């Protein structure tokens, strides 16, 4: 099987324009604190902020992130729930906004260790919010999740769909959403919550991508099989209520997620009130379809093994993101599943090469 050659969508010039910013000019740019800025999505956000004329300041405990991903920004190592630490950062940089990507996010682990998820995702976030308010920072962008919907009764899923999470991860994220509404009413905090569906892909130039330990996301796991780092990919259930029996998910490119954050930042800057948006392409792809697409992109067979279905795995999760398109002016640039996989494959080959020649 031969690898497929295809033309990639062109970068959005409005968002990907490379700015020549000297350190002196960067120090005068408006600051944005990026909590969790050395992780997968956060590192892409840091680069986009810098290239768009902002000054990203990362706060991260490096528990799961990678310090080298912070090469283009200032990194402060510490806990988002450490009020003295966060206060010092806010006092030094006087940021306009805080973007919050830091979280524990493994659904299975959340069932086994719920206390960890309530502490990391809720308690630490409340400490962060309190410290922000004490220092006059009133703009906040929160990374939430489609897990707040639980098992959907309507697909595509709109923002006003009932929120009935079925695991501690979803519960903890929804609790923060409620807190943001209350903080807005009581303290004037203005926040935009972005409910991600399935983040995927890598930076188009191959320099940033997904690197979790352990890896749990479908596309990088599939590509590790293609590169020879894993023997097969597990398909969890083949009897779901879907056309081919495998789960259907809405995959959204990491660059498109970051573009939505940048638009949310500009909306808050213009005085927007607290609100919530779904982020997804509105297109569902089954596990079988993703594996077949990866076979076409990589030219590798990618063996598959059937495993029992996972408890609490909804058959279908697809976003209705019409509100984000209408109000933010958001238009995903990388909606094609093969493009998402091709960018991730470029990153996986780089990781594989680095592992072979450390």
From TrEMBL:
PANTHER family: UDP-ARABINOSE 4-EPIMERASE 1 (PTHR43725:SF53), UDP-GLUCOSE 4-EPIMERASE (PTHR43725). It comes from Ramlibacter tataouinensis (strain ATCC BAA-407 / DSM 14655 / LMG 21543 / TTB310). Pfam families: Epimerase. Its cofactor is NAD(+). The keyword Isomerase applies. GO terms for molecular function: UDP-glucose 4-epimerase activity. It catalyses: UDP-alpha-D-glucose = UDP-alpha-D-galactose. Residues 32-280 form the NAD-dependent epimerase/dehydratase domain. Gene3D superfamilies: NAD(P)-binding Rossmann-like Domain, UDP-galactose 4-epimerase, domain 1. The keyword NAD applies. This is UDP-glucose 4-epimerase. The gene is galE. Belongs to the NAD(P)-dependent epimerase/dehydratase family. Its EC number is 5.1.3.2. Homodimer. Keywords: Carbohydrate metabolism, Isomerase, NAD. GO terms for biological process: galactose catabolic process via UDP-galactose, Leloir pathway. Pathway: Carbohydrate metabolism; galactose metabolism.
